[in-house]
Structures are given as C-alpha cells and as structure tokens.
Amino acid sequence: MTEEKKRGITVKKTENFSEWFTQICSEQGAQLVDIRYGIQGFIVHRPWAMKVLNRIYTLLEQAVEADGHEPHLFPTVILEDNLTKEAEHAGFIPDVFWVTQAGEHTLEKKWALRPTGETQIYPMYSLWIRSYNDLPYKGYQSRHTTFRHEMTTRPFLRGREFMFFETHDVFATHKEALTQIKVDMQIMDEVIRDKLKVPFIFFRRPQWDKFKGADDTYASDSLLPDGRRLQISSTHDLGHNFAEAFNITFHNKDGKEEFGWQTCFGPGIWRIMACLIGIHGDDTGLILPFDLGPQQIVIIPILKGNDTDEEVKTYCEDLKTALKQYRVIIDDSDNSPGYKYNHWEMKGVPLRIEIGSREAAQGTITLARRLGEKKTTVKQEDLNNAIITLANELDTDIGRRAEAYFKDRIKHAQTKEELIHVIKNHRGFVTVPFCTTNNEGAVCAEHIKADTGGADVCGVPLAHAQEPKKDDVCVQCGKKATVIVYCAKSV
RNA sequence: GGGGUUAUGGGUUAGCUUGGCUAUACUUUUUGGUUUGGGACCAAAAGACCCCGGUUCGAAUCCGGGUAACCCCA
User: Fold this and answer.
1) Is the pLDDT of residue A4 over 50?
2) How far is CA A449 from CA A222, A436, A454, in A?
3) Residue pLDDT, tens place only, A365-401
4) Which nucleotides of chain B are near protein (any atom < 7 Å from a CB)?
C-alpha cells in the first residue's frame, strides 16, 4: 500500500498518542464522536461509542445493584441555595453553568446545571431517611453532568458535558462507610480491571487533594499510552459534613437522633472509555474485549460473481442463526473483502469470520482474531469451541499486554534527583519515600510538582501499600518517611 | 493559565507571501461497466472558500472583531 493511498489512522500510537487518539475517535477512525456540534466541550456521541458506553454503564449498574444500590434519576438543575449549603463544596461555584432565564422571566433564584449529585440528592435523602431501619441507604444514578468552563477539551478526557455515574450511600456508622470504600474498590476490580482489562491503582489521596467537602478521597488512576495519569474513579468518605449541612439524620435503636455517615463513588464513564480506547487500541484501530463489542463477530462473505455466491450467502445466514447467542453482523456491503477487514478492525470487532466458496463447499469456517495475525479454519462442529477459545485468548492477551505496560510504567526513586530524572525520561508512576500525606506534606508536594515539571503526589495505594524502609527519608524535606507515595504527571 | 498554528465540497487538502478569468487533487456519494481470499479499476455526474465588518474597480487571498479546532509549555 502506497503512502498516498493510506486511509484510516495515519500516525503511530507510540509516536504521537494525542493525534492517534483524535483520529481514532473521529470520522477517519472508529467514528466514536463528532466534535462539530458547535459548542466547545459539548460533543455528539455516535452509535459505536454509545453501544460501548452503554455496556460500561450496564456492567457498573449490575455491580452496584448486586451490592444493594437502587437507581434514581435526579433533575438537571440545582437550586443555588442547595449548591452552596456545604461550605467547602461551594468551592465548585466558579466552575458551574447557570440558568438565569425561564422564557422571558429572569429567575429570582438561579439554577445551576448540576456539576455532581451531592447537593441535589442529599436534600431528598434528608426527607427519606428517618430511622436506623432505613440504613444503609444506597442509591445511584447514571446521567450526564455539565461542568467546567474548560479551555482545552478532548473527547472522553475533558469536556464541559460528560457521562457520569455516581452512588450515594448513607450508613449508621463510620466503620460501615469505610467498608463500603473497599467494596467500591472491589467493584472497580471486577468491572474495570477484569471485564474491561484496564489496569489502575486505587489510591488514598493526600489530604490536600480531597474532594471539596470530603474527609478523605480515594481514587483510581490509570495510565494512558503516553504515560500520563488519568483518574478514572473516586470514592469519597464524606464523614458527617454533608449530613450536617443537609440534615441527614436517623433515630438509632435507642431513639436518639444521629447524623448519617456518607460515602459517594463515581467511576468516570468517559475517562474509562478513554482508557479502553487508549490502552488496547493499535495503529489499525480499536481493540475491544469480547464482551464489550457492539458487534462481537463480523461475518464477511467473499463473493466471486458466479453461481457459488448464493451458496456462500446462505451459508453466512445459517452461521449467523447458529451464533445467535452472540452479537453478529454480516457485512454484505459492496466493498471488497480487504476494505471490510480494515473497516471492522478499525471498529475493534473482536472476531471475524470469512466465508468464501471454499468454506461453503467444505463446510468449514475461517476465523480471525482482532489481535493476532493468524487465521484458523475449523469444521462446523468445532465452531463454538473455537469462538470461546479465541475470545478468551483475545481477552487474556489484551489484559496481559495492558498489565505488562502498566507494570513497566512504575519505577522507584530514592532521591529527588532520581525522581526528576525518572519523570523526565520515563513517563508513568514513580514511587518515592515521602514525609506525610497529611496536610503538612502539601508544601513538599508543591516543590515536587514545580521541580519535576508537573508531577503530582497521587497518594498511597489502599491495597498492597509499600512500607517505607527504616532509614527512608522524604525525597523533598529529608524528614523521616512515613509513606511510599506514587507520583505522576496527569493528562 | 501562557504561547503558537489553523479554518476551502461530507472528509483530507492545493492556492494566500505578490488580490484578478471557469478554485487544485485525493476521498466520498450517484450512475454504468469490469471486479472481489488484506483498503480494486475505468467512464460520467454531484458537491466548498467559518461568521460579521472594513480596504478595493475587484477579496479564499489584505486589515479588524467573533466563533471553532489543533499543537507546545506551565
């Protein structure tokens, strides 16, 4: 193929990830979004993206429902008084969009387009929760959120309106709230790591990097192919802060009134999608785990323009019927087979079946996997096993590849000089001994950020945290290290 | 947040410095024909100068403003 005739993605992911990402999202790529809606940061999601995104939503919804959460849908707008009720949370104000007019009338009290659910959900929780019998109270909603006058917007990474998912829980005790945070971590493991094959680390954030209004913030960070950190979920330990602001109380078994202990969990649907695209995709296009494919199998008839064609077509139809437990499409468009291969590879369809006169005559099926060069031909009776095997292999391979990349992007540095050197030459996480993730550590974190050209202290992993060695000292201030923290530049 | 670059058919783009006649090419779509096991070919047709204002006999081209996008740095 000559250079002028090359279509599809024209840059290499490893050489220019930013451009690769733009192309794969666009018309020339997998046709995921259209950014020409006309208002910056508000984009159109096209069918292929919607089907993948809906699948991610479904997996998360099933997981949180299995953990006892029930669905809600709250309105798009929030009364200003509610948005500002919790003092720290009111820090969101400079970033929200406002509705000030209703037709010709100027609103006396303006409405905010919801940035996040706390201040719209908790006034209602205050009405619904009365007694210890109502607890734990676990709700969730899947919806868009509109937020931030971002100057630089990118599909799935940064926008002014984006897809959102949030659980909001109320417990009788802080202990139960802390347990929920671990459950949230397990949900991330089950869905994001196991099903989507996207690796991440679940951190406890430093105190200076908490959600506005939280006592503690926990968050998952993944890595894009350029080594930039991307936060893909957060769980907040809200303590009593919002319960006090919104008067969420319950009567305990002794008949006394107590404030509820609250948590909220928010996997970032958009950013998870960005990771799914970025981590698995290659220079030919998207690569989707078998379960995530809007179409899992594409059947490509190879026609000769002679009397065997009818036989081939019938054979394809019969196959589709036989595979009805999967999402299968027959591409009977007029394009050449090569065109179709490329087209569906760009879309990331996990498996491809090629049927020509050979297969039709012999009663065989030729299969090709999205990631992997070899084609295999099997007999009809072996088809189901072959599909299961290939699908599993694909998932295992992309999972392994993603984990290997992720592990390779975690380095250790013992001194500040080493940290600066590693951040400069090897994008990803760097672990370093650090004084403290309490507020006193904030100054050290600021110095690290300034001297490394933007690396943040991301926190300490909630599971499998490393203990500092006896003589370890903070890379910045030289005081005794109490933690090993992860540092990374973010998107 | 700071700086830079750009905006031409549905998509990608030439032309802009030095204003001028029917605006370049590829792709796309439609029609007809030959094709089809890794992005086929021939012929014909369709389709564009981001918006507002200015300079000028004349603006895609120059000037001002707006809008939108991309890249680099913090």
Assistant:
1) no
2) 19, 16, 5
3) 999 999 987 899 999 999 999 999 999 999 999 999 9
4) 1, 10-12, 26-27, 35-40, 67-74
